[in-house]
Q: What sequence folds into this?
């Protein structure tokens, strides 16, 4: 891996860790849709998920992650954020976008904004990807996903 790629990967992980740390330090907000800091976390999680999806396993180079919309969020022991959300994604060459479920756990190590561990789960294996067009109702997280298409961990 080149040093430019190493620096880019470090940058988006460090930026994600910083956003998670700020979210953990703020007063809890029961209204997820109004939680500006959680939106920052989601925005900074997009490049990490995109990078993980580039690996082998069914995500091709024509698919792209547009955004992540949070559904639930919980702080755990002051150093970990667990949340559920919906990934909004599309395929190059079309105007269609889809939503699929995401579960994430992001843990800060040693309270440092530069070090984090994560686990990401994306896509309901029982339904398959791209079955729910963007803008239509989704039963996740009220109906939990038990079998995920993709699972990534640091």
A:
């Amino acid at each position: 891996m080149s040093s430019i790629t190493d620096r880019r990967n470090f940058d988006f992980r460090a930026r994600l860790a910083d956003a998670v740390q700020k979210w953990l330090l703020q007063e809890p907000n029961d209204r997820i849709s109004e939680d500006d800091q959680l939106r920052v976390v989601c925005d900074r999680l997009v490049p990490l998920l995109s990078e993980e999806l580039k690996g082998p396993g069914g995500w091709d180079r024509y698919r792209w992650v547009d955004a992540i919309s949070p559904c639930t969020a919980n702080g755990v022991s002051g150093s970990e954020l667990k949340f559920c959300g919906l990934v909004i994604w599309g395929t190059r060459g079309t105007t269609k976008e889809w939503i699929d479920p995401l579960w994430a756990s992001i843990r800060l190590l040693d309270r440092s904004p530069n070090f984090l561990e994560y686990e990401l789960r994306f896509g309901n294996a029982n339904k398959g990807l791209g079955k729910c067009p963007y803008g239509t109702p989704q039963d996740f997280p009220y109906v939990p996903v038990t079998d995920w298409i993709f699972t990534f961990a640091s």
The chain is about 25% helix and 35% strand.
